[in-house]
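anyone seen this seq b4? input:
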Amino acid sequence: MVGHMPLFYFDFHDGQRHCFDDDGREFPDLSRARDEVIGPLSDVARDTRPPGDRRDCIAHICDESGRIVFRARLPLTPEWMR
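predicted toks r here
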């Protein structure tokens, strides 16, 4: 019998919008799930244009029970240099 890999759910927040993962994805471990969430987080930050300059783009990885097991935050704080 082949064991099943755990499901991990990736949720993203860009300061205004939330994107929740209802399906989950199988990974052999949390480390592999972590590697997979980092790329899309930078894509979310690049595509986000909320009012104001400062924003935080956040990704959560939840396990099968819904518990957050990893969080990555990408802050953006633009500053004019005078």
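The mean pLDDT is 85. Strands lie at 7-13, 18-19, 25-26, 55-62, 68-76. kinda curious what u guys think
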